[in-house]
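Protein chain data
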Amino acid sequence: MQLPPKVTDRAFDRLSEIGASSEGKALRVAVEGGGCSGFQYEIKLDDVADDDLVLEGKGEKVVVDSVSLPFLAAAVIDFSDELIGARFVIENPNATSSCGCGTSFSI
């Protein structure tokens, strides 16, 4: 049994700040082929689909589709607010390497 991804309080707080749930949206974290390392993350506000794993906290939702879920087992979905910019970030123990853009990885 794979551990589901974990969402930090910071990520849920940021979703509250941008009003995701009041718009009826969830933060979708998906994995697609492509990017400079073989896979890349797609992170966007989206509707909840029937086959999604729904992670809830602080009245907000983060969703992962069933195809992306194995690539995100035990990953941590966080929000980073640094000088270089503010963005949702993924700490993925499954990734064997990543590139400087922070959205591409390989397994």
Summary: The chain has one helix and nine strands.
